[in-house]
Sequence to fold (428 residues):
Amino acid sequence: MLITEDFLHYIWKFRLFERESLQTADGETLEIFSAGLHNSDSGPDFHNARIRIGETVWAGNVEVHLSASDWEKHGHTTDGAYDNVILHVVYRNDVPLFLANGRKVPTLELHNRISEALYQKYHKLVFGNQTFIPCENSIATVDGLTMQNWLTRVLVERMEKRSANVAAALALNKGDWEETFYQFLAANFGFKINALPFELMAKSLPQLTLAKNKNNPMQIEALVFGQAGFLDGVFKDEYPLKLQKEYAYLRKKYHLNPIENHLWKFMRLRPQNFPTIRLAQFAALIVQSNHLLSKILEIKEVKALRGLFTELKVNSYWDDHYRFDVASKPSSKNMGDGSVDILLLNTVALFLFSYGKLHQQQHYISRSLKLLENLPAEKNNIIAGFVNLDVKIETAFESQALLELKNNYCNYKKCLQCGVGNKILKLA
Fold:
């Protein structure tokens, strides 16, 4: 058997070895009441285990190694953190174990106590030749309850990691939630292709500056397009000429420096997604909703949250334009449902979760997860891969969880730390 230490951790954690007539290497009877809590940090592998050796009940830590001699190789002999280890669990007991104080640590050898069928299933799962995920031939056999419970856990992991980015930005913004939300929302208005210039534009144009001009839509539009670098040219149409004039005054008044216009990308984008249209929609949102995060924290209905974005009224100039001075066939420039869903997913749900986490208010976290349950699943290559394996995916809650599962478990073959992988192995 090609045994790994992770596999031994898994075997011990779930006690998936032959437990009849257990004995230590010295022949004393051994009974396991609790395998302990798995420790992912430094120190012994399992904390607070409870066992009986002979007539004595012990409580303490358990260390797991492939070979008993690994204890010395890993430097545990001189590390005081290992002085209260009550049991050394090894695959092969090649040497007796003594601590620095001379105490001999009881050892359990698992060689010949691990099921061949379990090992073969583990080996096939982790070391097989699957092309998408390790369990692609077995995931459809996992029951719905196990799948749902695990997806909930990995979704929360994903949201917590993304919340760390919010916390970092919040610190840079000196605790200003509205400014931080405004910057994240702007970046997500760029929809990946233009996320960076949108973010740079927002950081160059503080929300406080916009708030001072909130009652004048033309000035808001001038500030947004001007800071985005779109008002430096020579124009023919009346609308961009007005914006240019307004921006020249406002730029001097607020000592503003626009970003470079060449950062914006138009290639391979549908005209509806041109940055000029997204900027017009962003300006309309600012005009319509001052202190937007505060409003979002108060709104409890998904329909009302969606309405903040679907009811935007962009300047009528864009009814028949996608670029300045270039007329086009009239068309609606309202945000489509798909675009709104992305903003709700990547900004609104994230900030509800982050706000709840940092303020220790569970109801905001619950609202964040409920919002994800009410948004449709994303469509991308990873989600398509799971669909091909007959995994049911209907909501953004499920698709976000599966993205986390694929990127941070499946790609690294962390099957032994995965609830789905555990279930498949237990079916052995």
